[in-house]
Amino acid sequence: MAEQPEIGIVVVSYNMARELPRTLQSLSPDYQKNCPPGRCEVIVVDNGSAEPPDAERFASLGMNVTVRRQQNPGPSPAAAVNMGLALTRAPLVGVWIDGARLASPGLIDACARAAQLHPKPVIATVNFHLGPSEQYLSMQSGYDRLEEDRLLASIDWPRGADRLGEISTQVWHGGRDGPMLESNALFLRRELWDELGGYDEAFEGPGGGAVNIDTFTRACESPGAQLIVVGNEGTYHQFHGGTISNAPGHAMEATKRLAAEYYRLRRKPLRPVKAPRWFFDPVSGALDRKL
Amino acid sequence: MLNDQPPSRSVFQEWIVNYIASVIDLEPEAIALDRTFHDIGMDSAEVVIMTGVLEEEFAIEVRAELPFEHPTIASFLDALAEKKLIS
């Protein structure tokens, strides 16, 4: 039996034939710093793609990738996430609820180091959209997959992955300085995932907008938990027709619906997390506990 | 299922003032009905979230754009009244 990996990453995919291979490449040992083969395993759970991803396609990435299909896929990715959480063997688990998100090249190691700073850490990373503005805005000015491909080529990605910030935009309540609404690469220890019961499958909204926020909020509210935001790393959303990120003209309606669903299930308004956070700078190793 | 009887303007006004006060950590008395949501301190996302919450709270349907087209509490209430969503 293979040695237990230190880190598990659950990635949910849905009709991401263009984006998922890039996302997985961004998690691979050749791309990630200080993340040799065996340190991390990746569980891809496909949530009903017309053409599900094939594990063989990712064999060349040099990492342990498992691909599973959610047998009864619904609009919400919550059950797919939970399937992935049940499959991973690692003590530290990160969730990519949106498989179209590229990781920055130091993200995995930074999150693992941050997790060692507290016995019950909630490790959050900053959220970006590729492109000149949030994609539901930029696409109204012509931003599309071709333009995104051109942008990535302009920084020579993946070799130029350290320059992703140059071609991206931080999203609202994305996490660096102000109250944080969610993390699209959320790392918790296995024990906290178990305590939360994973993602709450009562949330049925498409794309996971409300359930991702709910999970992040519940993790931060768990007694004794400490939010640690990892700086200088993040996830970068590729254009793929997402429920809110790529929804011009109805992004507000979609946000309104997820706010309504959250209120219906939790009986409190959806709010960014304002709890005191720690800020971890993986470059210097400094930990700022004053934020 | 939507309510047969729309909420009264006074009830709705009290709710929205208290909601905004809780979001931006102000006393309800400090919320002016004739100031824009933005000037009160609500960002656009918070206004959209508020719209979703009030839909659930009052079992009514409100277009997400409506509070942006009528960006004060008073004008928003007028618009809701005109659409007979409040009485």
UniProtKB/TrEMBL annotation, chain A:
| Key word Transferase present | yes
Gene3D superfamilies in alphabetical order: Spore Coat Polysaccharide Biosynthesis Protein SpsA, Chain A (3.90.550.10)
Pfam families given in the database record: Glycos_transf_2
Give all residue intervals belonging to the Glycosyltransferase 2-like domain.
Answer: 9-120
- Keywords on this record? Glycosyltransferase, Transferase
| Entry's Gene Ontology molecular function annotations | glycosyltransferase activity
Q: Which family does it belong to?
A: Belongs to the glycosyltransferase 2 family.
The identity of this protein, by name, is Glycosyltransferase family 2 protein
Organism classification: Bacteria, Pseudomonadati, Pseudomonadota, Alphaproteobacteria, Hyphomicrobiales
UniProtKB/TrEMBL annotation, chain B:
Give one Pfam family: PP-binding
List the InterPro entries hit by this protein, alphabetically: ACP-like_sf, PKS_PP-bd, PP-bd_ACP
Which protein is depicted?
Answer: Acyl carrier protein
Keywords, alphabetical: Phosphopantetheine, Phosphoprotein
**Gene3D superfamilies under this entry?**
ACP-like (1.10.1200.10)
Supply the SUPFAM superfamilies for this chain.
Answer: ACP-like (SSF47336)
Annotated GO molecular function terms are: phosphopantetheine binding
Per the database entry, which stretches of residues form a coiled coil?
Answer: none
